[in-house]
Amino acid sequence: MECSSCRIKITNQDGAVNFKCPKCGKFEMVRCETCRKTVAKYTCPECGFTGPN
Length: 53
Known about the structure:
The protein is of the alpha+beta class. It has one domain. 11% of the residues lie in helices and 23% in strands. The chain has one helix at residues 33-38, and strands at residues 17-20, 28-31, 42-43, 50-51. A hairpin with a 6-residue loop joins β3 (42-43) and β4. The protein is globular. The chain starts with 16 loop residues before the first strand and ends with a strand.
């Protein structure tokens, strides 16, 4: 897996999360701890939803 924001490889990294896209629920988003803390943007390749906020 890789972070949906910064694209670093994530393998059992503490603080990382994965979740379905809040809008379409089809694509699984992955976020590393650093991108979560810095509130880095991510975009769903399925529907174009951009988060966070």
